[in-house]
Amino acid sequence: MNIKRFYLIVLFILLLIFQTSAQYSVPPKMKWWYNDRFGMFIHFGSYSFLGHGEWAFSIEKWSKQDYQTNVTAKFDPIHFNAKEIADLAKRAGMKYLVITAKHHEGFSMWDTHVASFKDVTGTKFYDLPQFTKFGQRDILKELRDACRLDGIKFGLYYSILDWNHASQTISETNGQMYSTMKSTEACADYIRDMKAQLKELIDRYHPDILWFDGDWTYNSNEPTLNSWWTKSDGIDLYKFLVRLNPKLLINERVFRGAGLGDWMCPEQKIPEKPESRPWETCQTMNKSWGYNAADSDYKAPAVLIRQLVEVVSKDGNYLLNIGPKGDGSLTKQTVNILSEMGKWMDNNKQSIYAATRSPFAVQPEWGYFTKRNGKLFIHVFYWPQNGTLEIPALANRIKKIYLLNNPEKLLTYQLTSSIIKIEIPHNAPDKINSIMVVEVNGIPKAKAN
Ligand code: GLC
């Protein structure tokens, strides 16, 4: 190889590294998820009937028997309307959805045939069609089908710990309320049965995502009856699932904090800066995941829209929760919030989908940046009153600058070696978030000073 060619190849590799180091390089199976950015989380289970949130079983210290008789048996989601939910998600601009198939309460939302998932008498399957009077409707399938029609990817949440299963009781060790295994044998049998349930879910619903939780009984060493879920269980579970479907996306909570799974899940928080690998924050609209009749402390749509923008500016995904009522209907606030978010997304979605992190290390006080090939999006939450907005200089050549919703009217700007100074209208075009676009050649990059 001649020397010139060698240097060209080295230069090409360096360019490639520089290009991708600016954001995550994701495996092909994750491309859609990384592009889509915005999803809906749904906490729905027999706890929705009680309306005290999904932890009521443990917090209120129900016995298995009483919980089954007074809560689960009465769960009757007759107003569950899969089309309404999928349409609402679509209108809000959400591209994927994750619903609880089994939460910590141990109640299966589908017709399970795995023998050990029974009620306390050991005679009845503890699941929606067989344990309640709701009957034979398959709401997971209804929702899966409605999602497919609306072009929304479908995911299922599954809790590793199970407060109802005969192998476990709610644990109060160290003041926590996870689960304690009866014996080592019961633990091994449960893990085998859990995998059988997950195979059922994959075979029946072909989910795009499996979203785990309830892995807190984890332990990197030898398992104990209180800390019975091990890192090797998490690794084994991930391998088992991708063998069943190599395209399946699986979150980190197969065993959190150990770099497993396909992405990190900071819960109810947005990290200071991009994480070391793809991440998704899950957030509630009020303060509860499962329906809580006493909680009407909903955030304003503007707060949630700004959260979404902040998340994308840090290269993350945003999974926003709804908690339907026990009868399957949605609260008025839920519908209203999602409709408002949808109106905003309709006008501004190009700054969210397939957009990645800010090219700048420091975030401005007035908002955030996102970017795509050829465009830098300036999201202004707090509109300056002095007629100018200053942003750090770019390494790219600037073609033009305009308000995202008024591309015809170009904005004047001045360049200094370190700053772009943009002349802006006096009033904010959008009270929640006004967006300006800086059109450039290539992916926007900060100018090295
Ligand atoms: C917490 C809660 C759980 C909820 C989850 C969502 O872990 O315990 O109830 O499902 O957050 O991420």
Quick tags:
449 residues, alpha/beta, TIM Barrel, Immunoglobulin-like, 2 domains, five-stranded antiparallel beta sheet, 12 helices, 30% helix, binds alpha-D-glucopyranose
Structural class: alpha/beta
- For the largest sheet, list the strands in their spatial order: 9-6-3-2-1-11-10
By DSSP (H or I, 4+ residues per run), the number of helices equals 12
What summary fits the major beta sheet? 7 strands, parallel
How many E strands? 19
In short:
30% of the residues lie in helices and 20% in strands. With 449 residues, it is an alpha/beta fold.
Describe the structure.
It is built from 12 helices and 19 strands. It has 449 residues and is of the alpha/beta class. The chain folds into 2 domains: 27-351, TIM Barrel; 367-440, Golgi alpha-mannosidase II (Immunoglobulin-like). Strands 9-6-3-2-1-11-10 form a 7-stranded parallel beta sheet. Strand 17 (413-415) and strand 18 form a beta hairpin. It is globular, with a radius of gyration of 24 Å. Bound molecules: alpha-D-glucopyranose. Residues 43, 54-55, 213, 267, 282, 289 line the site of alpha-D-glucopyranose.
